[in-house]
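[step 3/7] inverse_fold.run input=structure_tokens len=98
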């Protein structure tokens, strides 16, 4: 589920349809000003909040540089750095306006 300003959207995909969560959200929902660097991990416009306790793929160097440690600790991630795999099945994310 994707939460955009309180509206909830259910998204489905299959393996290898999208290279990351940002591309899935961008293609299916097209939020305004989302994913400006098209997945380079540098613009920060794909910032999302992950529900507590969910373990996803670890941060890469670009994400670690773009986000501060404090943001990472609060469960904020860059959707472009989250892989589409079994770990995101059934999770809810909230898009954070830049
Ligand atoms: S699309 Fe730019 S940081 Fe994710």
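[step 3/7] decode complete -> sequence:
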């Amino acid at each position: 589920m994707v939460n955009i300003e309180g509206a909830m959207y259910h998204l489905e995909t299959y393996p290898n349809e999208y290279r990351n969560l940002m591309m899935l959200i961008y293609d299916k929902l097209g939020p305004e000003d989302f994913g400006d660097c098209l997945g380079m991990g540098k613009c920060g416009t794909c910032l999302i909040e992950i529900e507590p306790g969910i373990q996803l793929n670890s941060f890469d160097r670009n994400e670690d540089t773009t986000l501060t440690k404090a943001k990472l600790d609060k469960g904020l991630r860059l959707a472009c750095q989250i892989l589409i795999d079994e770990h995101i099945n059934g999770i809810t994310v909230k898009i954070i306006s830049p």
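[step 4/7] annotate
The pocket of FE2/S2 (inorganic) cluster is lined by residues 22, 35-37, 39-46, 66, 78, 80 (CB under 6 Å).
Residues 21-28 form the longest helix (8 residues).
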